From TrEMBL:
PROSITE patterns: PSI_RSU, S4. This is Pseudouridine synthase. Responsible for synthesis of pseudouridine from uracil-516 in 16S ribosomal RNA. GO terms for molecular function: 16S rRNA pseudouridine(516) synthase activity; RNA binding.
Length: 231
């Protein structure tokens, strides 16, 4: 919401009076004087008029989790454990999941209280690369990389996947980079070429790399540089 609107939403303050307060330097955003009424203010920022708090900042959380197998990417489930159970209880109500993994898959997950930020990370049209280490049931055929580069036709959605890059590591192991996040996309791509995924581990989302020091089942806050790299 624009700063001028936040100010004029207060009882007794008109839009004209809000502009006067801004021009006089009586408005502070996160402790800094602000005179730009058109500035977009997030719910994670504090706004003051003189010594009066007009908008209290919601806490902003940005977490990296090393997901183990067997946990659902959900906030709650009556049958299976969820990734939220791996998070400190006082944080759980603030968080949502940015980029899900299925129950058997492992690796990098991002949880945050900032929906606009996670949307930039997961929005398909932005085409942020997502990198997975894949193990298959059968040897990866020589034409798989070319098939993935051309895109795989998904009949249910009536669309072709964006070009993906396959780097083969061993006969049944590869690193796959995709630019979407469709339902069970990696498993369906391998199924389309006559193979089956037996393990799937996400290593990277955009510039966010799974911390090699982060133990399986553990989480940590993202650094300021990691947070600013998304966007």
């Amino acid at each position: 919401m624009k700063l001028s609107r936040i100010l004029s939403n207060q009882n007794g303050i008109s839009r004209r009076q809000a502009n006067i307060l801004l021009a006089a330097g009586r408005v502070r955003v996160d402790g800094e004087i602000c005179r730009e009424g058109g500035l977009n203010i997030s719910r994670f920022q504090e706004v003051w008029i003189d010594q009066e708090l007009i908008q209290r900042a919601d806490p902003a959380y940005y977490l990296m989790l090393n997901k183990p197998a067997g946990y659902l990417s959900a906030t709650e489930d009556p049958v299976h454990p969820t990734v939220m159970e791996l998070i400190e209880p006082t944080l759980r109500d603030h968080l949502h999941i940015g980029g899900r993994l299925d129950r058997a898959s492992t690796g990098l997950m991002i949880l945050s209280s900032d929906g606009l930020w996670t949307r930039r990370l997961t929005e398909p049209r932005i085409k942020i690369p997502k990198v997975y280490r894949v193990t298959t049931a059968h040897p990866i055929s020589p034409d798989t990389a070319d098939r993935f580069t051309e895109g795989i036709w998904f009949g249910y959605e009536q669309l072709r996947t964006s070009p993906a890059r396959l780097e083969q590591i061993g006969p049944t192991e590869a690193r796959l980079t995709i630019y979407e996040g469709r339902y069970h996309q990696v498993k369906r791509m391998f199924h389309a070429v006559g193979n089956r995924v037996t393990s799937l581990h996400r290593e990277r989302m955009g510039s966010l790399l799974l911390d090699p020091e982060l133990a399986v089942g553990s989480f940590r806050p993202l650094t300021a540089d990691e947070i600013s790299s998304v966007g």
